[in-house]
Amino acid sequence: MTDLDPRPSPAAPVPSPRALARRRRQRALGRFARSYAHNRAGMFGLLSLLVIATAALTAPMFIEQSHLSITGAPGQPYEPPSAEYPLGTDNFGRSVLDLIIWGARVSLAVGLLATVVSVTLGTVIGITAGHFGSSGGTGGRIASTVLMRITDWFLVLPTLVLAVALAAVLPGGTGTIVVAIGLTVWPPTARLVRAQTLAVEARPYVERARALGGGHTHVMLWHVLPNVMPVVLAQTTLLVATSIIAESTLAFLGMGDPTTISWGGILEAARTAGAVSAGIWWYMVPPGLAIAVVALSFTLCGRAVESVINPRLRENR
Amino acid sequence: MTRPEETHVSSTETDPPVSSDPSGAAPVSTPLLSADDVRVAFSAGFAPGGTAGTAHAVDGVNLDVGHGEIIALVGESGCGKTTLARVLLGLERPTGGQVVFEGAPLGYRSRALKSYRRRVQLVQQDPTGSLNPRRTVYESVAEGLRVHRGTTADEAERVGEALARAGLRPADRFFARYPHELSGGQRQRVVIAGALVLEPEVLVADEPVASLDASVRGEILRLLLELRRDLGLSALVATHDLGLAWNIADRVAVMYLGRVVELGSVEDVLSAPAHPYTRALLSVLPDAPSEEGPVVLSGEPPDPKRVPGGCRFHPRCPILASGEAERAGVAERCRTEDPRILPGGDERRVACHWAAADDEGRLPVV
């Protein structure tokens, strides 16, 4: 304290501050991974997701694509499960197992993309509404209120009806399904992010940032975003399940892209083929189970992430 | 409470200059930063229990901060200290009056505010809360630099310099630490370094040591004094702690219910308080040199939504209650006439009908 020499201490730190920070972050990530690994349900979810994702990604290597077309079907219609077709065949003689594995590609892709769309939308709207509502003056409060009323409007609309309407209005295709789902499931994320933003905005370091001269962008990106990211991450894993179910529902209702194979599409094909009344269970049950398993796995992962981030939830894992 | 009357740059670290300019030069006449009849009213809207109304947190304050001058703003909780500090920083827009910096009124367009905020910096009460827990010390200190000039090549050097100045040495050992790994005093030093890195001219500190323990508090105060001596920094320190004001300030402004009620050099105000409120505050200090014993204020604690008519202190004023004001013949004025708002200059003033000699709040010449 008595040394008042204003010169800096040797300003050539061996590792640069950024490298140090990166190392710290890696260590924090390691801690997160270890504490996640203690959550058994979360590990189960992660493992089953890895298996399903690997199968979906490597599908073209062990599934003959021509076998998936109606004309190139390898077996007889409605063959019960056997050694050659572990889950039997459908009404055209295609292997149901192959269809399920192939369908995972579309179902997962649409589920993940729709989640990205809705989480991005929800985060942007939530942070904007939260930030300007608390520190944007009168204009900001009005803008925030308008945004939140729009959110409420989307929240009270039945998600499925809206998605069906959107899918019907927009040009057909997988992209449309992504948009339709993305545009309907974002409101809870926006509300959640807004609440978290308000909590962060009330902290003194946000006031300090403003006193330092930081503008809205600075506060939102430098302070609010890193602090809402954990919540967003947990919300993302939970939303994937919702999105996959929504995709299956839309496909089941015939709103999907008829040229692609997805789990909901298989279910719909089974229904139109009369598999229900004919008691062809191996055509109906596997896609439904697949949807349930993936949704469950994502939910387990989400809950595990949530409990790692928020230690108060840790007891009831 | 004793200390040398007149000091120049003293050789001891513990008792730095009090009333003299650090360079020894005469104080510059135009104040660096001043509040000009600043008023802030919060409208509470409609609330259950009849608490609706307008809260006059700051109700007409003139205050000047000169070059290299440390001013203490003292008063009890809720008297408007923090609001006034926020107004001076441009974080709160006054509903009346203006903030004047270097003779020009403060602009509230974002560009004007941004350049203002390079020169006037804030140190908050709670060092734990004022650092983002997800940012390292380096990032927190560099934040101001990045806001104003983006990431520059000499950033690490400047951050190291600011940390060293704030007493965190060797600075690079602190770069990668997170706030939760530091002690309270170290955190407050990081906050101060984050303010210093922009080379400000004025530091507005709101209860800078209230949440620190006694030994650390001394160190932080010494740091503020060193900064004033080495960098010529001006400071406005809002505090409820009269001992703190005594230790670091040149001048003291005592606030009560949104007004400055007494203003003057720290020796004058604290050793010969004129306003009954200042007297009451001082009389309850453990080592108070009081003849009358501690004066405990009676009546309700002040409510900025219901500022009493007349002198705002009169319902709790011991002088009025004891009949002394009656004997002096000012009791009627105390109840009905609001004392004039004190001007903010260097002169000793008091806003009290009983203690002041004239309407301008000057003291009677003894």
UniProtKB/TrEMBL annotation, chain A:
Transmembrane segments: 41-63, 99-132, 153-186, 228-253, 289-309
ABC transmembrane type-1 domain span: 104-302
CDD domains: TM_PBP2 (cd06261)
Keyword field: Membrane, Transmembrane, Transmembrane helix, Transport
Region of interest (Disordered), ranges: 1-20
Keyword Membrane: yes
Origin superkingdom: Bacteria
SUPFAM superfamilies (UniProt xref): MetI-like
Pro residues compositional bias, start-end: 7-16
Membrane topology: Multi-pass membrane protein
Location of the protein in the cell: Cell membrane; Membrane
Pfam families linked to this entry: BPD_transp_1
Family designation: Belongs to the binding-protein-dependent transport system permease family.
PANTHER family: OPPC IN A BINDING PROTEIN-DEPENDENT TRANSPORT SYSTEM
Name recorded for this polypeptide: ABC transporter permease
